[in-house]
Design brief:
CATH class of the largest domain: Alpha Beta
Structural class: mainly alpha
Strand content: 5-15%
Strand order of the largest sheet: 2-1-3
Order of helices and strands: HHHHHEEEHHH
Radius of gyration: 16 Å
CATH superfamily of the largest domain: Iron/manganese superoxide dismutase, C-terminal domain
Number of domains: 2
Length: 195
């Protein structure tokens, strides 16, 4: 057994025009596949079921980078859906209002974290055990290593958006929030963390 690239949860043209088929083919089929391949070379006797423990044991270096990027990307694909965007409902919507003051305040904070992150990394909505927070991490780092539960992420490495947006990261972030967020997936993660 080995680590495997999960299939996209939608056809590779399903997020157009916000993310094109070409962008997803390169990002998923090339970048993410490379992280999986390098991870299998470094840790040949593990599988996707062992991913969290590999990340937590490595903490840094090449094994951590490939394992964490495999985790981050696998999670990122789930955070998007055709016809996504809008506002979260139910308990998640109430928690967003409670912890950020309003949905608009939340999206402004998440947009800022993603659009202004210096260099490569990720912007996150996390549950820290007592409240929802917006955070960002550099390179391959992820909430798991900080004792937080990831609920939503935006990939802000250039390879995530350059095909469609060139250097206009803020436009990519706006499109992600307005048209791509899979709130059903986020709500499922929130209900699990709240249990």
């Amino acid at each position: 057994m080995a680590f495997t690239l999960p299939p996209l949860p939608y056809p590779d043209d399903a997020l157009a025009p916000h993310l094109s088929r070409e962008a997803l083919e390169l990002h998923h089929g090339k970048h993410h596949q490379t992280y999986v391949d390098k991870l299998n070379e470094a840790v040949p006797d593990k599988t996707n079921d062992d991913l969290d423990s590999v990340i937590l044991q490595a903490r840094e270096g090449p094994i951590f980078n490939h394992a964490a990027q495999h985790w981050n990307h696998s999670f990122y694909w789930q955070c998007m859906a055709p016809g996504g965007g809008g506002k979260p409902a139910g308990e998640l919507g109430e928690a967003v209002d409670r912890d950020f003051g309003s949905f608009d305040a939340f999206t402004e904070e998440l947009h800022g974290a993603a659009a202004t992150h210096f260099g490569s990394g990720w912007a996150w909505l996390v549950d820290d055990g007592s409240r929802l927070l917006v955070t960002s991490t550099h390179d391959a780092d992820l909430p798991l290593t900080h004792g937080q539960r990831a609920l939503l992420t935006i990939d802000v490495w250039e390879h995530a958006y350059y095909v469609d947006y060139r250097n206009r990261r803020p436009d990519y972030v706006t499109a992600f929030l307005d048209h791509l967020v899979n709130w059903d997936f986020v709500a499922k993660g929130f209900s699990t963390s709240a249990a």
